[in-house]
UniProtKB/TrEMBL annotation:
Pfam families: Methyltransf_10. The keyword Transport does not apply. It comes from the Bacteria. It comes from Mucilaginibacter aquariorum. It catalyses: adenosine(1618) in 23S rRNA + S-adenosyl-L-methionine = N(6)-methyladenosine(1618) in 23S rRNA + S-adenosyl-L-homocysteine + H(+). NCBIfam families: PRK11727.1 (NF008725). Its main location: cytoplasm. Specifically methylates the adenine in position 1618 of 23S rRNA. The keyword Ubl conjugation does not apply. HAMAP family: 23SrRNA_methyltr_F (MF_01848). This is Ribosomal RNA large subunit methyltransferase F.
């Protein structure tokens, strides 16, 4: 679930140094890039220009403006009910895995089409391939099990003329992660994933309800930033999903130089470390990321 903050410090020092969103949103520039944002912008209680971050239309339009201004993505939208991602945090993940790839390239972030990245569960928003390709020129494959999400991601790619750089592959079963996506003989430099981190739809609704209460809003359990079941929860939650991912990654050790995944809950890490030790991972890294009051981690490993 997106957690874009209503406050805007002059500099978001907790974001990656190369993140284009470290400074407060320049709403004048954003409105210039996307005039349709103007109707959502007003002065807040701090006399700053801002939007209502509890309004899903405002957040979606802000994302459209950010993608257009910073990444040259002229057309972007998502179907109703799907996850609307916070752009700054998504960009951070891209920059941190770029740092990992730089370690094997004399400290220089590798750019261009020679770098191939697999995004597991690309989603209807296709956000990681868009940011990764526009920032570093990497080629991407995005896997997706949901038909509507896959169609949405493909439309974004086609509308922006990115068919030569980003490919969407349909995963035929929710039971598999890499199996059925990585082709025989295919090589990837990095895999990435923003996994579902709740264990049930009930947990999703309870957390959403608490969020609305904290915001002083009476909106029941509606998710203002969207998110379908497969985007938000997985039976057994984040620990089970990551265990499945690590188990399958061992099978595809020759196909991928590095594997990675976001980890939302710190308590998930111990089980991941045990699984990686069991499968004899050669190198394991844990990168801490933070945006506002939220802290997450990127777990990176190779065999």
């Amino acid at each position: 679930m997106a957690d874009q903050s209503t406050s805007q410090p002059d500099e978001k020092l907790n974001l990656h140094p190369r993140n284009a969103h470290r400074n407060r949103y320049d709403f004048a520039a954003l409105v210039k890039a996307l005039p349709g944002l103007r109707e959502f912008v007003s002065q807040n209680e701090h006399d700053d220009l801002s939007i209502d971050f509890t309004d899903p239309d405002a957040v979606r339009t802000l994302n459209q403006a950010l993608l257009k201004q910073h990444y040259g993505v002229n057309t972007w939208d998502i179907p109703e009910g799907f996850l609307c991602p916070p752009i700054p945090g998504r960009a951070d993940y891209i920059h941190y895995i770029a740092d990992v790839l730089a370690e094997g390239n004399n400290g220089v972030v590798p750019t261009g089409k020679t770098i191939k990245v697999l995004d597991i569960g690309v989603g209807a928003n296709c956000i990681y391939p868009l940011i990764g390709h526009k920032t570093y020129g990497w080629d991407f494959v995005g896997s997706e099990a949901d038909y509507i999400a896959a169609a949405s991601a493909k439309k974004i790619i086609e509308d922006n003329g990115l068919g030569g750089a980003i490919e969407i592959r349909k995963q035929t079963t929710y039971a598999n992660i890499f199996d059925g996506i990585i082709k025989p003989g295919e090589k990837f430099d990095m895999t990435m994933c923003n996994p579902p981190f709740h264990s049930s739809s009930k947990e999703v609704k309870e957390k959403s309800s608490r969020k609305w209460k904290n915001l002083g809003q009476d909106k029941g359990t509606d998710l203002n930033f969207g998110g379908r079941n497969n985007e938000l929860w997985y039976e057994g939650g984040e620990p089970r999903f990551l265990n499945k991912m690590i188990t399958e990654s061992k099978q595809f050790a020759r196909s991928c130089k590095w594997f990675s995944s976001l980890i939302s809950k710190k308590t998930t890490l111990d089980g991941c470390y045990k699984s990686l030790d069991y499968y004899k991972a050669a190198d394991v890294k844990t990168i801490t990321m933070s945006q506002g009051q939220k802290t997450s981690r990127v777990l990176v490993w190779r065999f």
